[in-house]
Amino acid sequence: MNAAGFRPHQAKLGRTVSHVALHEQLTVPAVPRRLQQDWQQEVTRHLQLQAGDVEELPLARARARWPDLRQCIRAAVDWTNSLRLDHLLTQSDMALMACRGAVLHDDAEQYSNCAFCNLFLSEDRGLDLHFASTGQRIALQRGTVVIFDTCQAHEVMVRGSDHFSVSDFPDALDLTQVFLTWELPIDHVQLAQLLGIQFERPSMAAR
Predict the structure, then answer these.
(1) pLDDT-based confidence at 8, cuts 50/70/90?
(2) What's domain 20-194's superfamily in CATH?
(3) Residue 188's pLDDT band (boundaries 50, 70, 90)?
């Protein structure tokens, strides 16, 4: 599906939709080979991840097998704290995810009250995170961190392409990206200001 064919969710949000994507390149440790192999088995045998799929990986197992995961989390916390989002990550739900690209979509139906903070852990696979409304592209590699409104349409596609296509993700190529994700409350005052979000009722952003 290309940008022209995408239809955003029309749910009443009580707020504007941000077209801002905050991003930075952080220094984080490389994923150990043993854990990479574990993830590869998980996505191929258990999740059977197909092109365009985004699925959850076992976070507890990654914590147990990779003590340096704490350094990745700390780097993301330090970055968000530098944006005056003090302690927001440590107070938010975190998950470990894997994707083989992502079709153009938004997450308004399930996560309209959130922004995503995603920290990518895989090496550069030649993929970009693309935001359809602005044309912004962010190269995905180890240490790329992004905060964006869940209601903003986005996709993960092969670098150099103009949209996600299943044909760009043949089974023979390892184009899986693994990332940590946090659900940030969109009504957090500083987060709403950074993303330029306005609320219909000012009291919604009063915390």
Answers:
(1) low
(2) Jelly Rolls (2.60.120.10)
(3) very high
CA dist list (Å): 80 to 18, 21, 76, 83, 146: 18, 13, 6, 5, 10
| Residues 127 and 156: beta-carbon distance below 8 Å | yes
Instruction: For residue 93, list its beta bridge partners.
Output: 183
Domain-wise residue ranges, the chain:
20-194
d(CA 201, CA 18): 17
Return the DSSP state at 126. S
Does the pLDDT value for residue 202 go beyond 90? no
Q: Taking CA 20 as the corner, what is the angle to CA 8 and CA 53, rounded to the nearest 5 degrees?
A: 50
- The pLDDT value given to residue 200: 84
pLDDT-derived band at 128 (thresholds 50, 70, 90) equals very high
The full length of the chain comes to 207
Looking up tokens 């330090």, which residue turns up? 78
Indicate whether 28 pLDDT > 80.
yes
Q: Whose CA is closest to 198, among 133, 153, 149? A: 149
Is the four-CA dihedral 51, 56, 58, 60 of positive or negative sign? positive
pTM score of the predicted model: 0.91
What ranges in 57-188 are assigned the alpha helix state H?
59-65, 69-82, 108-111
* Nearest alpha carbon to residue 37 among 179, 181, 180, 174: 174
Q: Name the residue among 186, 100, 89, 102 with its Cα closest to residue 145.
A: 89
pLDDT at 12: 57
